[in-house]
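Is zinc ion placement plausible here? Inputs below.
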Amino acid sequence: MGPAKVKAREEFARYLQENGLKGSQQRSHILESFLSMPPHLSAEELHRQVATVDEGIGLSTIYRTLRLLCDAGLAKQRHFQEGRSCFEQAFEHHHHDHLICVSCGRIEEFICEEIETRQDQVADQHGFTLTHHRLDLYGHCADCKPE
Ligand SMILES: [Zn+2]
Ligand SMILES: [Zn+2]
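Reply from A.M.:
I modeled the complex. Tokens:
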């Protein structure tokens, strides 16, 4: 377990305590699964993973806990595609942009210094002071490329 995971656990424990919520075995199973999975996942994917450890946890508990993880700053909810909600690791997960496959829903992260720099320049030219940005590129991934 890496130091970021240890800190994420501590952060969640602190959040629960500050909000008068109890830590439970279910919550910790969900947190551990969330932290061990790829950085973007749906509640259903998390549910399947959690079920390998604890079959008794329902999808509604997964959703409730994901909401807590978002409040605690450990996860961020995104809607890359209509009707599909996705949860992204947010704890010490640094800025990046996304490539999203419109056929299979695969999400890849990338960071391109050139694009970052150009964005700053564009903002500058318009007298903008940037606070943040999102860049989501949509298309077909290598596996789904149309013939
Ligand atoms: Zn694809
Ligand atoms: Zn991401």
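Short version: Helices lie at 3-18, 25-36, 43-51, 59-71, 113-125.
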